[in-house]
Sequence to fold (588 residues):
Amino acid sequence: MKTLLELITAEMREAFVKAGYDEELAKVTLSNRPDLCEYQCNGALAGAKKYKKAPFVIAEDVAANLNDSKYFESVDVVKPGFINLKLSAECVASYLNDMAKEEKLGVSEAEKPKKIIIDYGGPNVAKPLHVGHLRSAIIGESIKRILRYKGHDVTGDIHLGDWGYQMGLIITELKKRKPELPYFDESYEGEYPEEAPFTIGELEEIYPTASAYAKEHEDYREEALHATYLLQNGYRGYRAVWNHIMNVSVADLKRNYENLNVEFDLWKGEADAQKYIPDMVQMLKDKGYARYDEGALVVDVQEETDNKEVPPCMILKSDGAALYDTTDLATLVQREEDYHPDQVIYVVDKRQELHFIQVFRCAKKTGIMPQETELDFLGFGTMNGKDGKPFKTREGGVMRLENLIREIDDEMYRKIMDNRTVEEEEAERTAQIVGLAAIKYGDLSNQASKDYVFDVDRFTSFEGNTGPYILYTIVRIKSILNKYREAGGNPDGLVIRPAENEYEKALMLQVLKFNDVFDAVCEETAPHKLCAYIYELANEFNKFYHETKILSEEDEEKKAGYIALLSLSKRVLETCIDLLGFEAPERM
Ligand code: ARG
Fold:
């Protein structure tokens, strides 16, 4: 289905052509003066030079052709040459009724669906999840859902950090604590028994202990580095321990991400890319892309147009060890082989931007990825505490994700109990649903690349630009629809009637914009614009609600029209929050 902007742009083009002007001038936009009009066209101003005419004259010529248009209630020409448009109430209602019939509420699927991989989440196995990983999960999940809604073929890959030094540290610490385990023997040939020699609780304690100890003791650190080296070079017993760590950790990660409503299609990681490294390195050498620089193997990626130095991509350290660059390049080899994607999007902390510039350039230059594949880095900013500094616990430590979520849920629980709309037991579950919305909306309503302040009080408020406010609005609509049902009505299949007052029309105009807004959100991968849209939608709904007798309306047809509008508003809101990655409770 065409969006309303597309329809009225087509109408405007025709009017320009009929008046003898270039149709390219007929660009219609949302009005930036909503007090005067709803949409506007400034094409006459742009055409003045070309036609050597006053813009006002051009605008009047064009407007004369729009008088009979079924779309507009009024077409006003204002000095110096704006064409201000107001949609007719009939047009609005009929468009909304068409929208309601569409499964995707008027969003058209991409004509050429792309195969897209989104690399997000990126937790490091055996290390606790912290707030930095939260942003990647929240933003990546929303972008995945948005692109999928548009009809693209999207695969979300968690890209585990599962091949680094932390693994060597854990092996070393385990060897110290449980030397009787068979894995540390060089001649270990056994299989990988099911039962892990530690629980997730122990594992979470082992890593920080070992990490702190290694900082103080060089021998220990050397041993951990060596263990990492042996693991990466196929030492069988260490691989067995690695398997245990993976099993225990991944089970825990799955539980954590499930609580966040974040779902990955692929649970691949750095370790999976390792087998692609030898051939890739050989290719880079054979084709002359790689050179040795003080013993290290590097690929130059500086370009002539750079005004800053872009250091070479590091392929192998002088001791032959692979690095972060290497792993990401090998992962691209793997992705190209398995999926041949049209686009790969990385949702990672923006402080890693240089790394991705190097990797993308190297991949394109060396043919690891075809020229036409889009490689995009979507860097996000830091989540700060109220003091404007990176988020910390009260004691000044790194905030663990679980604790942060608990803090929000507790606050939500308190607020929900204050409202006394639900029983204690339900309040707990509701607090989790609303708490998640508070966190996700708090994050997504900011442009991803910007830093933002995580403010528990503000995020959990039922008023203002917050997740709970949006949910509260949805719950309010649900409750009206339920009452309508209880009184014997059926809210499905009713027809929206032309608006009779300004609040009703304002709500309708906001609902009507959904597919235009969605397309922009998708095009710009900008979930924050979807948040801005639903915030405005919730505001328009609440104004309408306060100004209108809905259930007590005596004219049954009019009431049915309101109910139809409410149903559609609810569908749009629910679709949007699903695209943002959260849901609404029944009551709150
Ligand atoms: N594990 C990394 C970290 O915690 C993030 C991984 C991002 N993705 C990637 N393909 N490099 O910083």
